[in-house]
Protein backbone atom coordinates (compact mmCIF):
# COMPACT_ATOMS: atom_id res chain seq x y z
CA UNK A 1 0.00 0.00 0.00
CA UNK A 2 2.80 2.37 0.86
CA UNK A 3 4.48 1.69 -2.46
CA UNK A 4 1.24 2.26 -4.36
CA UNK A 5 0.53 5.48 -2.49
CA UNK A 6 4.06 6.71 -3.10
CA UNK A 7 3.69 5.87 -6.78
CA UNK A 8 0.42 7.80 -6.99
CA UNK A 9 2.06 10.80 -5.29
CA UNK A 10 4.99 10.60 -7.67
CA UNK A 11 2.71 10.49 -10.72
CA UNK A 12 0.66 13.36 -9.30
CA UNK A 13 3.84 15.37 -8.68
CA UNK A 14 5.09 14.71 -12.20
CA UNK A 15 1.74 15.72 -13.68
CA UNK A 16 1.64 18.83 -11.50
CA UNK A 17 5.12 19.65 -12.68
CA UNK A 18 4.10 19.27 -16.32
CA UNK A 19 1.00 21.41 -15.67
CA UNK A 20 3.02 24.09 -13.93
CA UNK A 21 5.56 24.07 -16.72
CA UNK A 22 2.79 24.31 -19.28
CA UNK A 23 1.21 27.23 -17.45
CA UNK A 24 4.55 28.97 -17.06
CA UNK A 25 5.28 28.32 -20.70
CA UNK A 26 1.92 29.78 -21.66
CA UNK A 27 2.53 32.85 -19.49
CA UNK A 28 6.01 33.23 -20.92
CA UNK A 29 4.64 32.97 -24.45
CA UNK A 30 2.06 35.67 -23.68
CA UNK A 31 4.69 37.86 -22.05
CA UNK A 32 7.11 37.38 -24.94
CA UNK A 33 4.48 37.59 -27.67
CA UNK A 34 5.15 41.27 -28.27
CA UNK A 35 8.88 41.72 -27.89
CA UNK A 36 8.80 44.35 -30.63
CA UNK A 37 6.09 47.02 -30.58
CA UNK A 38 5.66 49.11 -33.72
CA UNK A 39 4.20 52.62 -33.80
CA UNK A 40 3.38 54.41 -37.05
CA UNK A 41 3.88 58.18 -36.72
CA UNK A 42 3.18 60.69 -39.46
CA UNK A 43 6.75 61.99 -39.75
CA UNK A 44 10.04 61.10 -38.18
CA UNK A 45 10.91 63.19 -35.12
CA UNK A 46 12.41 66.56 -35.98
CA UNK A 47 14.45 66.27 -32.77
CA UNK A 48 15.20 63.74 -30.04
CA UNK A 49 16.59 66.46 -27.80
CA UNK A 50 13.54 67.19 -25.61
CA UNK A 51 14.44 70.85 -25.28
CA UNK A 52 14.97 71.46 -28.99
CA UNK A 53 11.44 70.85 -30.25
CA UNK A 54 7.80 70.55 -29.21
CA UNK A 55 5.74 68.65 -31.75
CA UNK A 56 3.89 65.32 -31.57
CA UNK A 57 6.22 63.23 -33.72
CA UNK A 58 9.15 64.27 -31.53
CA UNK A 59 7.63 64.04 -28.07
CA UNK A 60 5.86 60.75 -28.75
CA UNK A 61 9.41 59.33 -28.90
CA UNK A 62 11.57 61.37 -26.54
CA UNK A 63 9.10 61.37 -23.66
CA UNK A 64 9.92 57.67 -23.28
CA UNK A 65 13.69 58.29 -23.23
CA UNK A 66 13.57 60.99 -20.57
CA UNK A 67 11.91 61.59 -17.21
CA UNK A 68 10.28 64.93 -16.44
CA UNK A 69 10.64 66.95 -13.28
CA UNK A 70 6.97 66.33 -12.50
CA UNK A 71 4.31 64.66 -14.62
CA UNK A 72 0.57 64.14 -14.95
CA UNK A 73 -1.14 60.87 -14.19
CA UNK A 74 -3.84 59.49 -16.48
CA UNK A 75 -6.45 61.50 -14.55
CA UNK A 76 -4.59 64.72 -15.39
CA UNK A 77 -3.30 65.38 -11.87
CA UNK A 78 0.23 66.69 -11.34
CA UNK A 79 2.25 64.00 -9.55
CA UNK A 80 5.93 63.40 -8.66
CA UNK A 81 8.46 62.02 -11.08
CA UNK A 82 12.10 63.17 -10.80
CA UNK A 83 10.96 65.49 -8.01
CA UNK A 84 9.47 63.59 -5.08
CA UNK A 85 8.13 66.74 -3.36
CA UNK A 86 7.95 70.52 -3.74
CA UNK A 87 6.94 73.60 -1.79
CA UNK A 88 6.45 77.30 -2.46
CA UNK A 89 9.03 78.97 -0.20
CA UNK A 90 8.23 82.52 -1.36
CA UNK A 91 6.02 84.17 -4.00
CA UNK A 92 8.90 83.82 -6.48
CA UNK A 93 10.64 80.64 -5.31
CA UNK A 94 9.67 76.97 -5.44
CA UNK A 95 11.89 74.31 -3.90
CA UNK A 96 12.01 70.76 -5.26
CA UNK A 97 13.30 67.61 -3.57
CA UNK A 98 14.92 65.26 -6.09
CA UNK A 99 14.73 61.46 -5.85
CA UNK A 100 18.01 59.78 -4.99
CA UNK A 101 17.48 56.47 -6.82
CA UNK A 102 17.38 57.58 -10.47
CA UNK A 103 20.20 56.82 -12.88
CA UNK A 104 20.73 57.92 -16.44
CA UNK A 105 20.98 55.19 -19.03
CA UNK A 106 24.80 55.40 -18.91
CA UNK A 107 24.70 54.44 -15.22
CA UNK A 108 25.39 57.92 -13.86
CA UNK A 109 23.15 59.12 -10.99
CA UNK A 110 20.67 61.89 -11.78
CA UNK A 111 21.12 64.74 -9.30
CA UNK A 112 19.74 68.17 -8.58
CA UNK A 113 22.57 69.62 -10.65
CA UNK A 114 21.16 67.93 -13.76
CA UNK A 115 17.75 69.43 -12.99
CA UNK A 116 19.22 72.92 -12.59
CA UNK A 117 21.24 72.46 -15.79
CA UNK A 118 18.15 71.37 -17.75
CA UNK A 119 16.20 74.43 -16.62
CA UNK A 120 19.05 76.86 -17.25
CA UNK A 121 19.53 75.33 -20.70
CA UNK A 122 15.92 75.75 -21.81
CA UNK A 123 15.61 79.34 -20.52
CA UNK A 124 18.83 80.49 -22.21
CA UNK A 125 17.77 82.72 -25.16
CA UNK A 126 20.93 81.72 -27.03
CA UNK A 127 19.79 78.09 -26.95
CA UNK A 128 16.70 79.23 -28.88
CA UNK A 129 14.31 76.54 -27.67
CA UNK A 130 10.87 76.75 -29.28
CA UNK A 131 9.56 76.09 -25.77
CA UNK A 132 11.19 79.25 -24.38
CA UNK A 133 7.91 81.17 -24.27
CA UNK A 134 6.53 78.62 -21.82
CA UNK A 135 9.52 78.82 -19.47
CA UNK A 136 10.75 82.39 -19.79
CA UNK A 137 9.20 83.47 -16.48
CA UNK A 138 11.91 81.38 -14.82
CA UNK A 139 14.99 83.48 -14.09
CA UNK A 140 17.23 80.79 -12.59
CA UNK A 141 17.48 77.33 -11.10
CA UNK A 142 20.05 76.49 -8.44
CA UNK A 143 21.04 73.21 -6.80
CA UNK A 144 22.04 73.61 -3.15
CA UNK A 145 22.96 69.91 -2.87
CA UNK A 146 22.38 66.69 -4.81
CA UNK A 147 18.72 66.51 -3.81
CA UNK A 148 17.51 70.12 -3.65
CA UNK A 149 16.72 72.58 -6.45
CA UNK A 150 15.25 76.05 -6.06
CA UNK A 151 13.51 77.58 -9.08
CA UNK A 152 13.15 81.37 -9.11
CA UNK A 153 10.66 83.23 -11.26
CA UNK A 154 10.35 86.83 -12.39
CA UNK A 155 7.49 87.69 -10.07
CA UNK A 156 4.77 85.27 -8.96
CA UNK A 157 4.12 82.65 -11.64
CA UNK A 158 0.94 80.65 -11.11
CA UNK A 159 1.58 78.20 -13.96
CA UNK A 160 5.09 77.13 -12.95
CA UNK A 161 4.24 73.62 -11.78
CA UNK A 162 1.95 72.96 -14.73
CA UNK A 163 4.63 74.07 -17.18
CA UNK A 164 7.27 71.94 -15.46
CA UNK A 165 5.29 68.79 -16.31
CA UNK A 166 6.97 69.21 -19.71
CA UNK A 167 10.54 69.70 -18.47
CA UNK A 168 12.61 66.66 -19.40
CA UNK A 169 15.82 66.21 -17.44
CA UNK A 170 18.98 65.83 -19.52
CA UNK A 171 22.41 64.73 -18.17
CA UNK A 172 24.72 67.70 -17.82
CA UNK A 173 27.89 65.61 -18.18
CA UNK A 174 26.79 64.11 -21.51
CA UNK A 175 25.49 67.32 -23.10
CA UNK A 176 28.59 69.26 -22.04
CA UNK A 177 30.91 66.54 -23.35
CA UNK A 178 29.35 65.85 -26.77
CA UNK A 179 27.51 69.10 -27.55
CA UNK A 180 23.91 69.75 -28.57
CA UNK A 181 24.08 68.32 -32.10
CA UNK A 182 25.65 65.01 -31.08
CA UNK A 183 23.29 64.71 -28.12
CA UNK A 184 20.30 65.05 -30.45
CA UNK A 185 21.63 62.20 -32.60
CA UNK A 186 22.26 59.88 -29.63
CA UNK A 187 20.27 61.09 -26.61
CA UNK A 188 20.80 59.75 -23.10
CA UNK A 189 17.98 60.04 -20.57
CA UNK A 190 16.72 58.29 -17.44
CA UNK A 191 13.37 57.11 -18.81
CA UNK A 192 11.87 53.64 -19.23
CA UNK A 193 13.34 53.28 -22.74
CA UNK A 194 16.81 54.06 -24.07
CA UNK A 195 17.84 55.18 -27.53
CA UNK A 196 18.97 52.39 -29.84
CA UNK A 197 19.07 53.67 -33.44
CA UNK A 198 17.79 56.38 -35.78
CA UNK A 199 17.45 55.52 -39.45
CA UNK A 200 16.83 58.96 -40.82
CA UNK A 201 13.58 59.32 -42.71
CA UNK A 202 12.52 55.80 -41.76
CA UNK A 203 12.41 54.93 -38.06
CA UNK A 204 13.67 55.39 -34.52
CA UNK A 205 14.24 52.33 -32.35
CA UNK A 206 14.18 52.31 -28.55
CA UNK A 207 15.24 49.53 -26.16
CA UNK A 208 13.63 48.84 -22.80
CA UNK A 209 15.64 50.20 -19.87
CA UNK A 210 15.59 47.19 -17.55
CA UNK A 211 17.30 49.24 -14.82
CA UNK A 212 14.55 51.86 -14.81
CA UNK A 213 13.61 53.03 -11.32
CA UNK A 214 9.85 53.17 -12.01
CA UNK A 215 7.31 51.05 -13.88
CA UNK A 216 9.08 49.01 -16.55
CA UNK A 217 8.03 49.08 -20.18
CA UNK A 218 6.02 46.08 -21.43
CA UNK A 219 7.90 45.76 -24.74
CA UNK A 220 11.56 44.88 -25.17
CA UNK A 221 11.96 46.95 -28.34
CA UNK A 222 9.83 49.76 -29.76
CA UNK A 223 10.11 51.06 -33.31
CA UNK A 224 8.60 54.40 -34.31
CA UNK A 225 8.19 54.59 -38.08
CA UNK A 226 7.54 57.58 -40.33
CA UNK A 227 4.39 56.78 -42.37
CA UNK A 228 3.01 60.05 -43.82
CA UNK A 229 -0.01 58.50 -45.56
CA UNK A 230 -2.88 57.84 -43.16
CA UNK A 231 -4.43 55.09 -45.29
CA UNK A 232 -1.09 53.27 -45.18
CA UNK A 233 -1.04 53.57 -41.39
CA UNK A 234 -4.53 52.04 -41.21
CA UNK A 235 -3.49 49.26 -43.62
CA UNK A 236 -0.39 48.55 -41.51
CA UNK A 237 -2.56 48.24 -38.42
CA UNK A 238 -5.07 45.92 -40.08
CA UNK A 239 -2.25 43.76 -41.46
CA UNK A 240 -0.61 43.52 -38.04
CA UNK A 241 2.64 45.18 -39.13
CA UNK A 242 1.87 48.13 -36.82
CA UNK A 243 0.49 47.89 -33.29
CA UNK A 244 -0.39 51.56 -32.74
CA UNK A 245 -0.93 54.34 -35.29
CA UNK A 246 -1.48 58.04 -34.67
CA UNK A 247 -3.41 60.92 -36.24
CA UNK A 248 -6.42 59.22 -37.76
CA UNK A 249 -9.54 61.05 -38.86
CA UNK A 250 -13.13 60.01 -38.24
CA UNK A 251 -13.45 58.26 -41.62
CA UNK A 252 -10.37 56.14 -40.95
CA UNK A 253 -11.57 55.38 -37.43
CA UNK A 254 -14.88 54.16 -38.89
CA UNK A 255 -12.95 51.63 -40.99
CA UNK A 256 -11.74 50.00 -37.79
CA UNK A 257 -15.21 49.41 -36.34
CA UNK A 258 -15.52 46.08 -38.15
CA UNK A 259 -11.82 45.16 -38.13
CA UNK A 260 -11.26 41.84 -36.33
CA UNK A 261 -7.89 42.79 -34.88
CA UNK A 262 -7.96 46.58 -34.54
CA UNK A 263 -9.74 49.33 -32.60
CA UNK A 264 -10.05 53.10 -32.57
CA UNK A 265 -9.09 54.89 -29.33
CA UNK A 266 -10.19 58.51 -28.86
CA UNK A 267 -9.98 61.33 -26.34
CA UNK A 268 -11.25 64.91 -26.33
CA UNK A 269 -8.10 66.96 -25.81
CA UNK A 270 -7.15 70.39 -24.56
CA UNK A 271 -5.91 71.13 -28.08
CA UNK A 272 -7.64 73.81 -30.16
CA UNK A 273 -7.67 73.72 -33.97
CA UNK A 274 -7.29 77.19 -35.44
CA UNK A 275 -6.57 79.13 -38.58
CA UNK A 276 -3.33 81.05 -38.13
CA UNK A 277 -3.28 84.52 -39.71
CA UNK A 278 -0.25 86.70 -40.36
CA UNK A 279 -1.76 90.02 -39.31
CA UNK A 280 1.34 92.00 -40.29
CA UNK A 281 1.50 90.77 -43.88
CA UNK A 282 -0.61 92.41 -46.62
CA UNK A 283 -3.41 91.94 -47.44
CA UNK A 284 -4.11 90.31 -44.05
CA UNK A 285 -3.05 93.47 -42.23
CA UNK A 286 -6.53 94.75 -43.14
CA UNK A 287 -8.86 93.85 -40.29
CA UNK A 288 -11.88 93.78 -42.63
CA UNK A 289 -10.33 90.95 -44.62
CA UNK A 290 -9.63 88.99 -41.45
CA UNK A 291 -13.23 89.49 -40.36
CA UNK A 292 -14.41 88.30 -43.76
CA UNK A 293 -12.42 85.11 -43.25
CA UNK A 294 -14.04 84.65 -39.83
CA UNK A 295 -17.56 85.03 -41.26
CA UNK A 296 -16.72 82.79 -44.21
CA UNK A 297 -15.84 79.66 -42.19
CA UNK A 298 -18.61 77.17 -41.35
CA UNK A 299 -17.29 75.63 -38.11
CA UNK A 300 -20.42 73.56 -37.45
CA UNK A 301 -20.18 72.15 -40.94
CA UNK A 302 -16.58 71.11 -40.28
CA UNK A 303 -17.28 69.44 -36.93
CA UNK A 304 -20.50 67.69 -37.92
CA UNK A 305 -19.93 67.10 -41.61
CA UNK A 306 -16.25 66.21 -41.68
CA UNK A 307 -15.35 65.16 -38.14
CA UNK A 308 -18.52 63.18 -37.54
CA UNK A 309 -19.29 65.16 -34.40
CA UNK A 310 -15.84 64.47 -32.91
CA UNK A 311 -14.89 67.83 -31.42
CA UNK A 312 -16.60 70.99 -30.22
CA UNK A 313 -16.97 74.37 -31.94
CA UNK A 314 -15.26 77.15 -29.95
CA UNK A 315 -14.83 80.89 -30.29
CA UNK A 316 -11.57 81.20 -28.35
CA UNK A 317 -8.12 79.69 -28.48
CA UNK A 318 -8.41 78.39 -24.90
CA UNK A 319 -9.86 74.91 -24.43
CA UNK A 320 -12.86 74.37 -22.15
CA UNK A 321 -10.54 72.06 -20.20
CA UNK A 322 -8.08 74.87 -19.45
CA UNK A 323 -8.00 77.68 -16.89
CA UNK A 324 -8.93 80.90 -18.69
CA UNK A 325 -11.87 79.54 -20.68
CA UNK A 326 -14.83 81.94 -20.78
CA UNK A 327 -18.44 80.82 -21.24
CA UNK A 328 -19.40 84.27 -22.56
CA UNK A 329 -17.43 84.34 -25.83
CA UNK A 330 -19.27 82.98 -28.83
CA UNK A 331 -17.66 82.14 -32.18
CA UNK A 332 -18.31 84.23 -35.28
CA UNK A 333 -21.53 83.10 -36.96
CA UNK A 334 -21.29 81.61 -40.43
CA UNK A 335 -22.37 84.47 -42.71
CA UNK A 336 -20.88 84.19 -46.22
CA UNK A 337 -22.86 87.19 -47.51
CA UNK A 338 -21.39 89.44 -44.84
CA UNK A 339 -17.95 88.02 -45.68
CA UNK A 340 -18.41 88.92 -49.35
CA UNK A 341 -19.53 92.44 -48.44
CA UNK A 342 -16.38 92.99 -46.36
CA UNK A 343 -14.21 91.69 -49.20
CA UNK A 344 -15.91 94.14 -51.55
CA UNK A 345 -15.02 96.95 -49.13
CA UNK A 346 -11.36 95.91 -49.18
CA UNK A 347 -11.34 96.08 -52.99
CA UNK A 348 -8.23 95.27 -55.00
CA UNK A 349 -6.24 94.30 -51.91
CA UNK A 350 -8.39 91.22 -51.49
CA UNK A 351 -7.37 89.88 -54.91
CA UNK A 352 -3.91 88.77 -53.76
CA UNK A 353 -3.29 85.04 -53.58
CA UNK A 354 -3.11 83.80 -49.99
CA UNK A 355 -0.55 81.06 -49.27
CA UNK A 356 -2.01 78.46 -46.90
CA UNK A 357 0.65 76.38 -45.09
CA UNK A 358 -0.03 72.85 -43.89
CA UNK A 359 1.74 69.54 -43.17
CA UNK A 360 0.76 65.85 -43.50
CA UNK A 361 0.15 65.49 -39.75
CA UNK A 362 -2.95 67.67 -40.10
CA UNK A 363 -6.32 66.48 -41.37
CA UNK A 364 -6.22 67.52 -45.01
CA UNK A 365 -9.99 67.24 -45.30
CA UNK A 366 -10.18 70.25 -42.96
CA UNK A 367 -7.49 72.14 -44.85
CA UNK A 368 -9.24 71.59 -48.16
CA UNK A 369 -12.62 72.53 -46.70
CA UNK A 370 -11.16 75.79 -45.37
CA UNK A 371 -9.68 76.51 -48.79
CA UNK A 372 -13.02 75.84 -50.47
CA UNK A 373 -14.97 78.03 -48.01
CA UNK A 374 -12.57 80.93 -48.51
CA UNK A 375 -12.69 80.46 -52.27
CA UNK A 376 -16.50 80.58 -52.18
CA UNK A 377 -16.46 84.02 -50.57
CA UNK A 378 -14.15 85.33 -53.30
CA UNK A 379 -10.58 84.82 -51.99
CA UNK A 380 -7.71 83.13 -53.80
CA UNK A 381 -6.08 80.51 -51.58
CA UNK A 382 -3.17 78.25 -52.52
CA UNK A 383 -2.33 75.28 -50.26
CA UNK A 384 1.38 74.88 -49.57
CA UNK A 385 2.13 71.37 -48.23
CA UNK A 386 5.53 70.70 -46.60
CA UNK A 387 6.92 68.18 -44.12
CA UNK A 388 6.36 69.00 -40.45
CA UNK A 389 9.92 70.15 -39.77
CA UNK A 390 9.76 72.68 -42.62
CA UNK A 391 6.30 73.81 -41.52
CA UNK A 392 7.52 74.40 -37.95
CA UNK A 393 10.65 76.21 -39.08
CA UNK A 394 8.56 78.63 -41.11
CA UNK A 395 6.06 79.08 -38.28
CA UNK A 396 8.87 80.12 -35.92
CA UNK A 397 10.76 82.22 -38.45
CA UNK A 398 10.91 86.01 -38.90
CA UNK A 399 7.42 87.48 -39.00
CA UNK A 400 7.69 88.71 -42.57
CA UNK A 401 8.48 85.15 -43.72
CA UNK A 402 5.94 83.35 -41.54
CA UNK A 403 2.98 81.79 -43.41
CA UNK A 404 0.12 84.09 -44.44
CA UNK A 405 -2.40 81.43 -43.41
CA UNK A 406 -1.83 78.11 -41.68
CA UNK A 407 -3.82 75.35 -40.09
CA UNK A 408 -2.69 74.51 -36.57
CA UNK A 409 -3.72 72.58 -33.48
CA UNK A 410 -2.18 74.00 -30.32
CA UNK A 411 -1.82 72.40 -26.92
CA UNK A 412 0.50 73.20 -24.05
CA UNK A 413 -0.28 70.12 -21.91
CA UNK A 414 -0.51 72.55 -19.01
CA UNK A 415 -4.28 73.16 -19.06
CA UNK A 416 -3.80 76.89 -18.61
CA UNK A 417 -4.36 79.79 -21.01
CA UNK A 418 -0.82 80.99 -20.42
CA UNK A 419 0.64 78.03 -22.29
CA UNK A 420 -1.58 78.70 -25.30
CA UNK A 421 -2.21 82.43 -25.58
CA UNK A 422 1.26 83.64 -24.62
CA UNK A 423 3.21 81.72 -27.30
CA UNK A 424 0.63 82.34 -30.02
CA UNK A 425 -0.19 86.00 -29.35
CA UNK A 426 2.51 87.76 -27.33
CA UNK A 427 4.56 90.04 -29.57
CA UNK A 428 7.98 88.66 -28.59
CA UNK A 429 7.08 85.00 -29.00
CA UNK A 430 8.71 83.13 -31.88
CA UNK A 431 5.34 81.61 -32.75
CA UNK A 432 3.33 84.85 -32.78
CA UNK A 433 2.20 86.57 -35.97
CA UNK A 434 0.52 89.35 -34.02
CA UNK A 435 1.71 92.49 -32.26
CA UNK A 436 -0.56 94.49 -29.97
CA UNK A 437 0.57 96.28 -26.78
CA UNK A 438 -2.85 95.79 -25.19
CA UNK A 439 -2.64 92.02 -25.73
CA UNK A 440 0.92 91.93 -24.39
CA UNK A 441 -0.16 93.77 -21.24
CA UNK A 442 -3.05 91.39 -20.56
CA UNK A 443 -0.99 88.25 -21.13
CA UNK A 444 1.98 89.41 -19.07
CA UNK A 445 -0.19 90.55 -16.16
CA UNK A 446 -2.18 87.29 -16.19
CA UNK A 447 0.98 85.20 -15.91
CA UNK A 448 2.42 87.38 -13.12
CA UNK A 449 -0.19 87.19 -10.38
CA UNK A 450 -1.45 84.47 -8.06
CA UNK A 451 -4.89 86.14 -7.98
CA UNK A 452 -7.07 83.70 -9.92
CA UNK A 453 -9.94 86.16 -10.34
CA UNK A 454 -7.66 88.72 -11.98
CA UNK A 455 -6.11 86.07 -14.19
CA UNK A 456 -9.54 84.88 -15.30
CA UNK A 457 -10.64 88.45 -16.09
CA UNK A 458 -7.44 89.19 -18.04
CA UNK A 459 -7.81 86.07 -20.17
CA UNK A 460 -11.44 86.86 -20.91
CA UNK A 461 -10.42 90.33 -22.12
CA UNK A 462 -7.61 88.79 -24.17
CA UNK A 463 -10.04 86.35 -25.79
CA UNK A 464 -12.42 89.20 -26.58
CA UNK A 465 -9.54 91.07 -28.21
CA UNK A 466 -8.64 88.01 -30.28
CA UNK A 467 -12.22 87.84 -31.52
CA UNK A 468 -12.50 91.57 -32.25
CA UNK A 469 -9.15 91.84 -34.03
CA UNK A 470 -9.25 88.33 -35.59
CA UNK A 471 -5.59 87.87 -34.69
CA UNK A 472 -6.20 84.18 -35.32
CA UNK A 473 -9.37 82.17 -35.81
CA UNK A 474 -10.24 79.41 -33.29
CA UNK A 475 -12.21 76.60 -34.94
CA UNK A 476 -12.88 73.64 -32.64
CA UNK A 477 -11.69 71.61 -29.67
CA UNK A 478 -9.85 68.62 -31.07
CA UNK A 479 -10.58 64.96 -30.44
CA UNK A 480 -7.49 62.83 -31.02
CA UNK A 481 -7.95 59.43 -32.64
CA UNK A 482 -5.47 56.54 -32.54
CA UNK A 483 -5.73 53.13 -34.14
CA UNK A 484 -4.49 50.20 -32.07
CA UNK A 485 -4.34 46.45 -31.97
CA UNK A 486 -7.17 44.98 -29.91
CA UNK A 487 -4.48 43.36 -27.76
CA UNK A 488 -3.23 46.76 -26.62
CA UNK A 489 -4.62 47.95 -23.29
CA UNK A 490 -4.17 51.72 -23.17
CA UNK A 491 -6.36 54.76 -22.59
CA UNK A 492 -5.43 58.01 -24.39
CA UNK A 493 -5.39 61.18 -22.30
CA UNK A 494 -6.45 64.78 -22.87
CA UNK A 495 -2.81 65.91 -22.88
CA UNK A 496 -1.95 63.38 -25.63
CA UNK A 497 0.81 61.61 -23.71
CA UNK A 498 2.09 58.38 -25.20
CA UNK A 499 3.93 56.73 -22.31
CA UNK A 500 4.88 53.18 -23.25
CA UNK A 501 5.21 52.04 -19.64
CA UNK A 502 1.55 52.89 -19.04
CA UNK A 503 0.51 50.35 -21.67
CA UNK A 504 0.00 46.61 -21.42
CA UNK A 505 -0.36 43.80 -23.95
CA UNK A 506 -2.93 41.05 -23.66
CA UNK A 507 -0.74 38.40 -25.27
CA UNK A 508 -1.63 35.79 -27.84
Q: Could you describe the 3D structure shown?
A:
The chain has 508 residues and is of the alpha+beta class. Helix 16 runs antiparallel to helix 17. Strands 1, 8, 9, 10, 11, 12, 13, 14, 15, 16 and 17 form an 11-stranded mixed beta sheet that branches. Mean pLDDT is 90; it is low at 1-32. It contains 17 helices and 19 strands. It is globular.
Shape: globular
Overall number of strands: 19
Largest sheet: 11 strands, mixed
What Rg do the Cα atoms give?
26 Å
| Count of helical stretches | 17
Helix content: 25-40%
Give the end-to-end Cα distance, rounded to a whole number of Å.
Answer: 45 Å
Mean pLDDT: 90
Unreliable stretches, pLDDT < 50, 5 or more residues? 1-32
Strand content: 15-25%
Assign the structural class, choosing from mainly alpha, mainly beta, alpha/beta, alpha+beta, or little secondary structure: alpha+beta
Summarize the structure.
This protein has helices at residues 2-32, 56-62, 112-123, 132-135, 160-164, 172-178, 180-185, 230-239, 250-255, 287-295, 299-306, 336-346, 364-376, 388-395, 418-425, 437-446, 452-469; strands at residues 36-41, 70-72, 78-80, 83-90, 93-98, 138-145, 148-153, 193-199, 203-208, 221-226, 244-245, 262-277, 312-313, 353-358, 380-385, 405-410, 472-485, 488-489, 504-505. It has 508 residues and is of the alpha+beta class.
Amino acid sequence: MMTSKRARLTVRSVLSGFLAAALLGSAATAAMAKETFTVDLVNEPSSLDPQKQWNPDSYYVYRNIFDNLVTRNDAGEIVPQVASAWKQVSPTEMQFTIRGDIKFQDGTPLTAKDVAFSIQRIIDPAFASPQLGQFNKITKAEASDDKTVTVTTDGPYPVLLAQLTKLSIVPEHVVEKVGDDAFNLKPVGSGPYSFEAWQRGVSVTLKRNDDYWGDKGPFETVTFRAVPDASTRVADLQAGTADLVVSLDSDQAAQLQTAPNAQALTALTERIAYLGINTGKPPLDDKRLRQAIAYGIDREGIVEGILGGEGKVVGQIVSPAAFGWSDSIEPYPYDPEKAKALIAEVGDGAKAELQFATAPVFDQRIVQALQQMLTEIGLKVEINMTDMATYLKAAQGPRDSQPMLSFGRWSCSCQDADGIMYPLLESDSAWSRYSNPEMDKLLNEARSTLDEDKRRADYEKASELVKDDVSLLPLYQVAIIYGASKKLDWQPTANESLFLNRMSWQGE
